[in-house]
Amino acid sequence: MRIIKDKFTSKNFSSRKGTKIDMLVIHHTGGEYSSDVNWMCSKESKVSAHYYIRKNGKIYNLVPDKEKAWHAGDSFFDLNGDGKIIRDEKWFNARSIGIEIESLGEEYPDDQLQANFDLSLDLIKKYNIPIEQVLGHKEISPGRKVDPGNFNMDAFRILLHGKLHEVDVRNIKRIPIKIDGKELQKTV
Predict the structure, then answer these.
(1) Which architecture characterizes domain 3-151 according to CATH?
(2) 1 within 8 A of 115, measured Cβ to Cβ
(3) Strand 178-179 relative to strand 182-183: parallel, antiparallel, unpaired?
(4) Which candidate in 32, 67, 100, 139 is catalytic?
(5) Which of 17, 76, 144, 151 has its CB surrounded by the most CB atoms within 10 Å?
(6) How many Cα atoms are found within 13 Å in the side-chain-facing hemisphere of 18?
(7) What is the pTM of this model?
């Protein structure tokens, strides 16, 4: 996996102030390459992500991991499953890495899916991110966000878990492992 650095740089970030990275948030842009990158690198937009993945599978690093990209916004999720939202379960920019996938909501090409999988797996290993904290934007901003659209986050987490623990997820017949009709098992 090759990550392209320094081609595009967003100025839309701030300090994590020592907060540990323990989440990964997946988005889709709702746009296309040139307008997406220009928008995320424009100071006026006040939005960014750490990584941007094109339809052809090219990965661009827009914000250094050590910095807080502005991608999750007003967000919350019951991370510990106790039915309550506490302070640490809100506003996830400081503790997360954001990945934006180029998409207008159409089917994701295989190269793009593979790049997202490889990058996510690499980041999970690098920062010891729990699989249950790999989340879609729509999961942390319900009713406000719908991305990543046409993307089965449960199946994605199962595939990541299988690869991390060397489990052959192809033998799991009861769980649909498909995104937009594509069997992701083939990409693992």
Answers:
(1) 3-Layer(aba) Sandwich (3.40)
(2) yes
(3) antiparallel
(4) 100
(5) 151
(6) 0
(7) 0.87
